[in-house]
Design a protein that fits this description.
Spore Coat Polysaccharide Biosynthesis Protein SpsA, Chain A; transferase; about 425 residues; alpha/beta; 22 strands; membrane; 2 domains; 7-stranded mixed β-sheet
Length: about 425
């Protein structure tokens, strides 16, 4: 069995991945089964940052380990593993056949993050709960690896890797669907081979409010409906906060950065102006910059707790990670709607590099991702940030999270969403 820990390059996550690796190998040694297990850290497989999306890494995994392994088992950094139970579970499934094993999630309703797949019956398609771990047999991995070397994906974007892996495995009915395994657990109970701890670990007291400068992107047409929602919900928890608009409005107040609002595309020009202002003496000095949209709902107290785990002297770009063109060596980015968190070091490196917008209305989150990729700054992922609304995610998944953010006021009561979830 090859256990692949879905680790990240950021120093905190690399340490957590290494700790999990040591725990698993020690269990195998204590059982006298050390020779049956190989444990890999995903971020160490290659220099390519896009390996986090798993599919680009499969051909390399098969080439390196396919002749000696029967199973490849993928786990999160915070997934705990009982090696004896895992080995026992896998003996139930003939390793010479194609198997895709996991704890199944399904959409409660058609979801934008899954491109409204299976819109007529969202619950008909299962994909693995990442917290519980998921396995592919070597014959299936071989077929996937060959396909990946000679084909392409239906979409250039990687949004929810576990749903997209399951779609790729299923291959419109030519491959296996996910087989549910009761011993792969998200919460610990008797008989579990795996269980999950938390995406919001305790790393010490939350960072002070004044360590986080909050930049809210807005525009004149939303001053009357979106800004009051921010005021009524999470603004009270901010140490330093400014609203950035296309006009100055003293009643809020807003700051105009001299960049006109755009109806199409993104807000790259405005975001780069925010980055430069953050480094200037026009605003209080802070270790972290949070950039959010005016229709983002966020728990700043949970964010400050999470930020204690990260080194502010490291170049950090944190949020919900998406990918663009990753099979073609593309780049990753933190989605803007869920909130983009940057350390001062990351902002300084970006601004001093000369990397810039190709147009003011270019998508700011994607341009930032492309710039950070060129600078060798990893995009660090936390599934507690959400680019969409709570209804767009499986209830079983987000109900057990301590979510940090949600995005969009479409067809929801944002005050109720904030009160219930954040």
């Amino acid at each position: 069995v090859v256990v692949v820990i879905q680790s990240q390059r950021n120093s905190y996550h690399a340490r957590r991945g290494e700790q999990r690796k040591v725990e698993i190998l020690q269990q195998a040694a204590d059982l006298g089964q050390g020779g049956l297990l190989r444990v890999l850290l995903l971020h160490q497989l290659s220099e390519f940052e896009g390996d986090w999306s798993v599919l680009p890494a499969l051909p390399r995994l098969f080439a390196a380990y396919g002749r000696r392994a029967s199973w490849f088992f993928f786990v999160e950094e915070e997934t705990r593993l009982k090696v004896a139970a895992l080995l026992q579970v896998l003996t139930r499934y003939p390793g010479h056949e194609e198997w895709f094993l996991g704890s199944g999630l399904h959409d409660d309703e058609a979801s934008i993050i899954h491109h409204y797949a299976f819109a007529e019956d969202p619950g008909s398609f299962s994909y693995p709960d990442p917290r519980a771990g998921w396995a592919v047999s070597t014959p299936l991995l071989k077929r996937l690896a060959v396909r990946l070397q000679h084909g392409s994906l239906k979409s250039d974007f990687t949004i929810d890797l576990h749903h997209e892996v399951a779609l790729y495995v299923w291959d419109d009915g030519k491959g296996p669907k996910l087989t549910a395994v009761a011993e792969f657990c998200s919460q610990r109970r008797d008989g579990c081979a795996t269980w999950f701890t938390t995406y919001l670990p305790y790393c010490g007291e939350p960072v002070p409010k004044t360590d986080v400068f909050v930049a809210v992107k807005t525009c004149q047409k939303f001053h009357q409906d979106r800004v009051p929602v921010v005021r009524a919900t999470w603004e009270k928890d901010a140490g330093f906060l400014e609203f950035y608009s296309d006009v100055s409005d003293a009643s809020i107040p807003t700051v105009s950065l001299g960049v006109p609002n755009t109806e199409q595309g993104g807000h790259c020009g405005k975001t780069f102006a925010i980055l430069k202002r953050f480094l200037s003496e026009a605003v209080p000095r802070a270790a972290w910059l949070l950039i959010v949209d005016d229709d983002t709902l966020i728990s700043l107290s949970r964010l400050r707790k999470l930020l204690r785990c990260y080194d502010p002297d490291e170049a950090v770009s944190l949020g919900e990670r998406y990918g663009y063109g990753l099979l073609q060596k593309g780049y990753s980015y933190a989605t803007g709607g869920g909130g983009m968190v940057l350390s001062r070091v990351a902002v300084s490196r970006l601004v001093s590099s000369g990397c810039s917008c190709y147009r003011d209305d270019a998508p700011d989150d994607m341009v930032l991702g492309r710039c950070f990729t060129s600078l060798g700054v990893p995009i660090t992922h936390s599934p507690l940030f959400h680019q969409a609304r709570p209804d767009d995610y499986p209830g079983r998944l987000i109900s057990s999270q301590q979510a940090i953010s949600f995005h969009k006021h479409w067809n929801v009561d944002p005050l109720a969403v904030y009160k219930h979830w954040l």
